[in-house]
TrEMBL record:
Transmembrane segments: 44-63
The protein's name in its UniProt record: Uncharacterized protein
Keywords in alphabetical order: Membrane, Signal, Transmembrane, Transmembrane helix
Species assigned in the record: Chitinophaga tropicalis
Residues annotated as signal peptide: 1-20
Length: 69
């Protein structure tokens, strides 16, 4: 289990430069310029990560409560 957490932390640390744009968002970002394009990309990543973190927290709490029972 410790190895899995290490892999997850490494993935999060190295995913900072991830490009998370679909083809439509890429075309829009090209028209906006470099500064707003980075903001658009960060917004997309924020919207993608938030539900995953919530699901992870709920899953961890369920796993912890099931283990205590």
């Amino acid at each position: 289990m410790k190895k899995i957490w290490q892999i997850i932390v490494l993935m999060l640390c190295f995913s900072v430069q991830t490009m998370a744009q679909c083809s439509l968002c890429t075309k829009t970002a090209q028209q906006l310029g470099e500064g707003p394009a980075k903001g658009l990309n960060n917004g997309i990543l924020y919207l993608a990560v938030t539900p995953l973190v919530i699901i992870g927290i709920l899953g961890f709490r369920y796993w912890r409560n099931a283990r205590q029972s």
